[in-house]
Write a structure and sequence with these properties.
single chain, 395 residues, mainly beta, eight-stranded antiparallel sheet, six-stranded antiparallel sheet, 29 strands, 3% helix
């Protein structure tokens, strides 16, 4: 999304001499998407940004995936998961495919290592907690309800102020607002459910602790022919030595409370709740809202078959009307796969009639390729969920 920002000091013209007070040149780094053909930002470093002194293997957490076979809907209780406390290295893989991976971690109050995801953008939903994300572009504050969007290959670290529950959506692509809400030049349009005022990027550069900081380790997640791997790179100078930058590519936060739900006279389909999209997946949020106002409206969703997609709903607040009686609660994930019709509990349909508002919050990821279960998904599963529509308890 082409939304220009300038932070810190930059010269009047790009790719011209820019020197510190002692006359030393700053080093330019152009960080851009799709080669030189899409959004980019130009950063000015005190040290050489490509100067590494070591490169070693970083052993990633378990990235194994198990197909959803035999096919069935799943209920995963994320609040039952035990995780380590590091916001990056202790994420556990819940669900994933070759386009997107969903992880979960409950942090402590200690900072993560410096980290860079070279596979794709990350969109991390903050279920609870506060803190900051320190980045090569500067510092972002985060709070409960924030989406923290970190562009591919952005060096950063999480610094929780308190234990935080983080729901990490890691793309193999870029993450952006839906194209139908953007003008041809990238501005959010009047019918969009949020606008640029709601996007909070860095307002000042970080500036690492002086030029004498050397041999700084950065964990890099990347791809090889063998799949997703990790490398521990050691840099001669600190990546956060940026004195200024400008451009249209940078990390930002967007809080779920700033999303304006779109409602209608009869039940609206999930695309009206969309907030972001990536390659072969979308992200939606369902929020407290007034519901359908036709006198004969049925406010809960109708039964629907995900012919082309898997639907992942993460329940983060309120009482989700459509699934009452199924075991779903706050901290639950429901996975409704393509090839299976799903919808409300039968009793929820009659109970919803006449409702004027729903007090519920959920984050949904719809993928257009089947999702596998990660090791954490298997560990957190409620085995009775698949039979909940039939009202039976089966082995």
């Amino acid at each position: 999304m082409a939304y220009y920002r300038q932070v810190g000091e930059v010269p009047q013209k790009r790719h011209t001499q820019f020197r510190d007070p002692d006359g030393h040149l700053y080093y330019e780094e152009l960080m851009g998407e799709e080669g030189f053909s899409s959004d980019s930002s130009l950063l000015y470093h005190r040290g050489v940004p490509s100067a590494i002194v070591a490169s070693e293997v970083w052993e990633l957490p378990d990235q194994s995936r198990t197909p959803n076979h035999p096919l069935k809907p799943r209920h995963l209780r994320l609040h039952d998961l035990e995780t380590g406390t590091d916001p990056v290295t202790d994420r556990r893989l819940v669900l994933g495919n070759n386009d997107v991976r969903i992880g979960y971690v409950v942090t402590g109050a200690e900072p993560s290592p410096l980290y860079r995801n070279a596979i794709g953008d990350e969109c991390v939903y903050v279920e609870s907690g506060t803190g900051t994300v320190e980045t090569v572009f500067g510092v972002l504050a985060y709070r409960a309800g924030d989406y923290v969007v970190v562009p591919r290959a952005t060096t950063h670290r999480w610094v929780p102020a308190e234990p935080s529950r983080l729901y990490a959506i890691e793309a193999n692509s870029h993450v952006a607002p839906p194209k139908r809400y953007l003008s041809k030049h990238g501005q959010l349009l009047e019918h969009a459910p949020y606008c640029e005022r709601d996007l909070h990027g860095p307002t000042q550069v970080h500036l690492a602790d002086g030029p004498d900081v050397t041999d700084v380790e950065v964990l890099v997640k990347h791809r090889t022919s063998a799949g997703i791997v990790g490398t521990r790179m050691t840099y001669a100078t600190h990546p956060f030595d940026v004195v200024g930058w400008d451009g249209c590519l940078y990390p930002y936060t967007f809080n779920i409370d700033d999303y304006m739900p779109i409602t209608g006279k009869i039940h609206q389909p999930p695309p009206v709740h969309q907030v972001f999209e990536g390659w072969n997946f979308v992200i939606c949020n369902f929020l407290p809202r007034k519901v359908d106002y036709h006198p004969l409206a049925v406010p809960v969703p109708y039964y629907h078959s995900n012919v082309d997609s898997d639907e992942v709903m993460f329940y983060v607040g309120g009482d989700y009307e459509a699934r009452k009686g199924s075991g779903i609660g706050i901290g639950s994930i429901s996975l409704h796969p393509g090839g299976h019709a799903h919808g409300p509990q039968p009793s929820a349909i009659e109970a919803s009639l006449g409702a004027e508002a729903f007090e519920e919050s959920a984050v949904m990821v719809d993928t257009f390729a089947p999702l596998d279960l990660g090791e954490a998904g298997i560990a957190a599963e409620d085995p009775a969920y698949a039979w909940s529509w039939a009202g039976r308890v089966l082995p």
